[in-house]
């Protein structure tokens, strides 16, 4: 049993008993944190490794609760367009050409960016999910994966897709030393007929898995749902039984007070995607109200093509900033709340109870920021610095499941040069086919 | 006469005839760009230095048009508060204790962060401005400096402050090889009585200098102006003659249609500070309308205590994102417009006609981003990547006035270790005195 101790670090613990430890120590044994506190519990010579944490800010790894990682291949391909135009004219025609190989390299490109930027767990909803799972396995990252199914197709194709989604969820749940969990995902109420959504609900019950879906991202989509099904998306999904399973919905921008109450009642988790919602002009989610109602709100980047990066520090900062500016309330989402959304509540939103805080008994998923830089001076308030001043590039070291994945900015598990080369090659082939 | 050529680079020129050069060359002679184009104009051996620009994205240096640099000493000291509370209870009591030495180290801390992050020109409005000017001189950055005067004081103190502001503006205009220009600055309509503002207008006329001031940052301030002076800030300042001089106003969040017309009519330049306006819950400026009326809109970070960093890539991205999300128009501020606001229109907003574009005859103020990173792949659209994917930490090299100031992430002109140490020492002394 290998024992590592980190000393002299600043720790943002996400543990209410001692949220900030200014000059602390943390012990990692195998894939767990077994101690965190002010002083080393044992003499330093009794550890297998002793890491000097001076000038580092340690915090839980970031949890990105909504992504379509392989869409990194389309980063910058079609900006400044409305959601439906962007999807129908730019994304879907290119994505229709995605092979398993494209998904492999696009996912690896995103995972490389995520781990280097401090994301230690991500949710992915896409196609060719075996490739995504293999990329997760190789890279050492933690992930909650799900085949996102668009059901606008003949019944036999629908059935095949559902069977594939079921198979994937069964095959990979608990794999990669438990780093992979799975969900069932009808893509959205506007891309899946009601009876098809009900089949996903049944499958989720059968497999005892949660459901993940897009919901109420744009005003138009909400109106279309009313026009087509006579109900807004929340009532529609509730009626179809989606919330009878543990559920994570992405976006939830356009909600009424009553809908917020329904989400709270069913303990539905919301993945807030501020960057993507702004970029696609979808609007600003009612996050302060969601938080007031006790709903678990986490943060997602959405796919890299609508963001256009996977910097979770940026999402935490946007979450802290935009709701202040839009509501006029300077404490609408304080720095502490944004930090929690990006870490502990992210993990809880995907039912990981032992991830998202630096605390004895938690999984050793944590990151270290290099704080010996001008934008982290003076040393006034480390939570403020992490939320209002930091960016992905400040991340020096990343540990996931007790393993060092990024060391002083270098990813130890992935071949960066090859991934950049192959992702460029994939994009050029895809564009050439258009 | 030294001649340097950069080859094989990607160039964002901000020149409409060829906005992006994919594999280009640029020649710098002394402090000027003398050539930019697809191929080197002369055989490479005829240059004194030949820089390989492969895997670099070159663009004009960023222009930060509103800052109080020394407030970096208060970064993280009082977040998540309303503007007036934050100013009156946190900032002003600490700032009242600022000595010339504090301003020196706070300014150097900010300049270090700015140059490393790609800002080559900044506007600074503060006190102890001789220290700021000396820090500009030492560091090699370009700046437009102004003593910001709060006039809520007895007449003799008012007179002394005005005289000091005049003297500073005269002493430093055109200094540091022309890198320093100056302005006259009554701090704001709510901190300067009308007759005092008129004295600044007269001084600006006497010295033939522009005027810089805060204006219409919060709704409360606008209402107070109406209550106290019977007019909203734009009419108030117009009446006092402020717009009879070339003028740059910071914030301009709360404007009516008529006020926008008045600003357009007087060619008043607006420094949009999206990060600060969101953080202090001041609101969202009507930038799309300002742009439609042809008003020159540039970007400012505001002081580091209300941001809390000086990353101009973040301000460009916020400018591109928030107006889409808030107006529901996905092309409200396209990437190209945000890029222009952060570079060329920033320079024009402070009357620098030979800064802000990569073009023959322009000053050699430019930066290089390391684009051999995951978040810049695939290579689809470089303007998109610069606005939606980049951050300050991606900046590798910075040239200002033809001089290499930052080389592969290291600032060649400033002593980082000393600046970090001294700024921490200053903060601790200031807090100890509270």
Topology record:
2 copies of one chain form a homodimer.
Chain A lengths: L2 E10 L7 E10 L2 E6 L11 E4 L3 E5 L1 E3 L18 H13 L4 H17 L2 E8 L2 H11 L2 E8 L5 H18 L7 E3 L2 E2 L7 H14 L3 E5 L3 H11 L3 H7 L7 E5 L5 H9 L3 E4 L1 H6 L7 H6 L4 E3 L12 H16 L7 H8 L1 H6 L16 E5 L11 H8 L5 E6 L2 E5 L2 E2 L4 H18 L1
Parallel strand pairs in A: 1-4, 1-5, 6-7, 7-8, 8-9, 8-10, 11-12, 12-13, 13-14
Antiparallel strand pairs in A: 1-2, 2-3, 5-15, 15-16, 16-17, 17-18
Helix pairs in contact in A: 2-3, 2-15, 4-5, 11-12, 11-14, 12-14
Question: Could you walk me through the main structural features you see in this protein, from its secondary elements to its overall organization?
Answer:
The structure is a homodimer of 434-residue chains. In chain A, helix 4 packs parallel to helix 5, helix 11 packs across helix 14 and helix 12 crosses helix 14. In chain A, the strands form three sheets. In chain A, strands 1, 2, 3, 4, 5, 15, 16, 17 and 18 form a nine-stranded mixed sheet that branches. In chain A, strands 6, 7, 8, 9 and 10 form a five-stranded parallel sheet that branches. Chain A has a four-stranded parallel sheet with strand order 11-12-13-14. The longest helix of chain A has 18 residues. Chain A is built from 15 helices and 18 strands. Helices cover 39% and strands 22% of the residues of chain A. The first copy, chain A, has a single domain, classed as TIM Barrel (Alpha-Beta Barrel), CATH 3.20.20. In chain A, helix 3 links the parallel strand 7 and strand 8. With 434 residues, the first copy, chain A, is α/β, with parallel strands linked by helices. Chains A and B meet through helix 2, helix 9, helix 11, helix 14 and helix 15 of A and helix 2, helix 9, helix 11, helix 14 and helix 15 of B.
